[in-house]
Amino acid sequence: MKKVVVATSLLFWCGTAHAHLVNTGLGPVYDGVSHLFVTFDDLLPVVAMAMLAGLNGPAAGRRTLFALPVAWFAAGLAGHLGGTAFLPAGITSISLLALGILTAADRRLAPGVVTAIAALLGALHGWRNGAGLAAAGREASGLVGIAGAVFVLTALLGAAIVSLRPPWTRIAVRAAGSWIAAIGLLYLGWALSGRL
Question: Would the pTM of this model clear 0.90, i.e. be above it?
């Protein structure tokens, strides 16, 4: 019986949890890379932005490819130096909702407009990441990994969407945009109810 109790205790014992900030043990840059792929609040807006840029053609895709990670990194440094995230936690829901609606609507936007949206998104999420790193006492070099991961994900997904030719594939991307908008609406409800 004693062995069963010990085995059960070990089964349900857990280590330290790192909410939002990832610790891979490989250093701050790789922690930043893994942060993007395990943090839903940052990953989904990058996916939505890459989809929107891809739907708006190669010029918008190329501009977004550089505007998004550069704005993310610059605002992240500012947030790290400032040390506080003055934006509410539910702000992610607004970006998801807006990007999802724009993607689902499939309205042709000028490359400059798409670039401005990408820069705003990067600044918003970058600031929150930088402030989060500062609050946790982590190095700002983690922002290099986050921005690098944003660049790679935007390049791969944006290029894949730009290259789509059959009409039904564009409809599939628009449908994914509507799901992102729905997730943003759900997030907004949680934020307004105080659950985020």
Answer: no
- Number of other CB atoms surrounding residue 12 within 10 Å: 6
Residue 94: phi and psi, rounded to 5, are -65, -45
Tokens of 153: 């994900």
Measured CA to CA, the distance from residue 104 to residue 40 in angstroms comes to 20
- The DSSP 8-state label assigned to residue 62 in this structure reads H
* Cα distances (Å, whole numbers) of residue 73 to 53, 108, 109, 149: 19, 28, 25, 11
As a whole number of angstroms, the distance between CA 73 and CA 48 comes to 19
- Write the pLDDT tens digit of every residue in 101-157: 999 999 899 999 999 999 999 999 999 889 888 888 888 888 999 999 999 999 999
